[in-house]
Design a protein that fits this description.
heterodimer; A: alpha+beta; 2 domains; 3-stranded antiparallel β-sheet; 8 strands; rod-shaped; B: 200 residues
């Protein structure tokens, strides 16, 4: 390795090495611009995080608000049937399955059950222990092409 | 992510969410767990009917699905017939009629109408309400569901009201954008009561 000064060297490699040994010139204000750029990027990150949170919050509120419109309503079905030993409720809300919804007997021989039903229109009827089909005395009757008493109920959206 | 992109994503979230919720609402309006995905034949039909009967019903229901009609009302009507121990042929006839009514309701109200509204509209058509009146009500209600006003009309007629008078009462509420509870509060006795000059 030569000990002579590289400033005077004509070797391109040595000239390049010598150039690298000099501190690189930094433009005036570079540090300040770098700091400002970092601050800008940080603010954008915060803005993005805030926007995402806001969007998620708004979306959640919209979903919950909309769901309130289709929230099930507690509907009480009641039938006075003193001579029955069991009463079932069958309808569009339980696949017309007499095993699914049994009414409970009250002290006044009134059989009742309360179901949470979403808004909509439902056909239904009561079936007693002896297989008799009964309509709801308070609900509107509906056309029954199958020949059994059938009632209909509309659960409103509000 | 650039600011415009974030705005687009936010807008998409806000736009899509009510649409999804509306679909859920329409299905909820059908009651009982909403639209059930059928494979070849609905499992509930398979459980309640002999295989040949379930397949026959399933074929009819499949054709309704192919036409874009809601299938849950048909499944429920079949289950209702089965619970009432009605012969399969009579159930099939009832399903065919209901399918035709659903098709007419869909043609009248449009294919994007919710299952609950279509089912109630089909019931109204089956009782003799004209498609023109359905369209009139739809125009007054805008995006609001038709189930409650049509249900109120059907209930009044079922209780013995003259259909013209029942329809006028329902339409009057629709014209002033009445709340759903007002339809339920229509006094059927008031409509059914014989008026001077009535010929009933």
């Amino acid at each position: 390795m030569s000990g002579k000064s590289t400033e005077h060297s004509t070797d391109p490699l040595e000239a390049a090495v010598a150039a690298l040994r000099h501190p690189a010139p930094i433009a005036p204000g570079f540090a300040e611009r770098t700091r400002q750029r970092a601050d800008h990027l940080r603010r954008r990150q915060h803005w993005l995080a805030g926007s995402t949170t806001l969007a998620a919050t708004v979306a959640l509120v919209v979903v919950l608000t909309d769901r309130q419109m289709v929230m099930p309503a507690g509907v009480t079905f009641a039938l006075n049937a003193p001579s029955s030993t069991s009463v079932s409720l069958v309808g569009d809300f339980n696949d017309w399955d007499a095993e699914q919804t049994r009414l409970e007997r009250g002290t006044d021989d009134e059989w009742t059950v309360t179901l949470d039903l979403p808004p909509g229109r439902y056909r239904f009827a009561y079936v007693t222990d002896d297989g008799t089909w009964l309509p709801d005395p308070k609900a509107a009757p509906t056309v029954d092409e199958f020949g059994e008493p059938t009632s209909v109920l509309t659960v409103p959206t509000e | 992510m650039t600011r415009p992109l974030v705005v687009i994503v936010l807008a998409a979230v806000l736009t899509a969410t009510p649409a999804v919720a509306q679909d859920a609402g329409n299905l909820a309006g059908m009651g009982n767990a909403g639209q059930v995905a059928l494979t070849s034949v609905d499992r509930r039909l398979v459980a309640r009917f002999p295989a040949s009967v379930a397949t026959r019903f399933g074929t009819l229901i499949d054709s309704a699905r192919t036409d874009g009609l809601p299938t849950e009302p048909l499944v429920l009507r079949a289950l209702e017939g089965g619970a009432k121990r009605v012969p399969a042929d009579r159930i099939y006839t009832a399903l065919s009629r209901l399918r035709a009514a659903l098709s007419r309701a869909s043609e009248t109200l449009g294919p994007s109408t919710g299952a609950g509204d279509l089912t109630t509209a089909a019931a109204a058509l089956q009782t003799g309400l004209s498609p023109a009146r359905l369209i009139e009500l739809q125009g007054l209600r805008g995006a609001a569901s038709l189930t409650v006003p049509l249900g109120a009309y059907l209930d009044l007629v079922a209780r013995g009201a003259v259909s013209e008078r029942a329809w006028d009462r329902v339409l009057a509420l629709a014209r002033r954008d009445a709340a759903d509870r007002e339809y339920a509060a229509i006094d059927s006795a008031d409509i059914i009561a014989r008026q001077p000059g009535d010929r009933r």
